[in-house]
Amino acid sequence: MMITVGKLTAAQALLEDYVPTTDAQTAAATRYRAYFQARETGAIDMGPIRAVTKGLDEEERRYQLTSAAWMQAWMDIESRRPWRDRFADAVRDLGPYTVPRRVEGFIGFQELAAPVAVVLATAIMAAIFGW
């Protein structure tokens, strides 16, 4: 959160004192350390992050690697550098992603909401004006 709100010095100080107790926390700490190093070099080194995530379950591994790729993308966007190719290279081997049914349903509802609203509004106007 500290990174998100721009308190980078405080975030880095917290990270230096942080002692992870689980493999997932170790992966996250490695990812954040790579991010701070990348602020100087311009590129997140995915090697250490990939190495530390090998023992994680597939969902957590994908989360850590995708998060690192998004951190890199955000740094590239802020620096006005092309970001899509580097992002695609970082997450390409993580696919295919499955989309939960509830998410598919929500997206479908969003896609159909506007046409249904137009049909209802047209029907109401037709009834009011007697078309």
Secondary structure: number of strands: 0
Rg, Å, rounded: 22 Å
Structural class of the secondary elements?
A: mainly alpha
What is the tally of helical segments?
6
Cα shape = elongated
Helical content stands at over 70%
Distance between the termini: 56 Å
* Strand residues, percent: under 5%
Give the SSE layout:
Blueprint: H1 8-17, H2 23-41, H3 46-53, H4 58-78, H5 84-91, H6 101-129
Helix pairs in contact: 2-3, 2-4, 3-4, 4-5
Describe the structure.
It is a single chain. The protein is mainly alpha-helical. The chain has two domains: 8-98, no CATH class; 99-131. The chain has six helices and no strands. It has helices at residues 8-17, 23-41, 46-53, 58-78, 84-91, 101-129. Helix 2 packs antiparallel against helix 3, helix 3 (46-53) packs antiparallel against helix 4 and helix 4 runs antiparallel to helix 5 (84-91). The longest helix has 29 residues, at 101-129. The chain is elongated, with a radius of gyration of 22 Å.
Describe the structure concisely for a colleague:
The protein has 131 residues and is mainly alpha-helical.
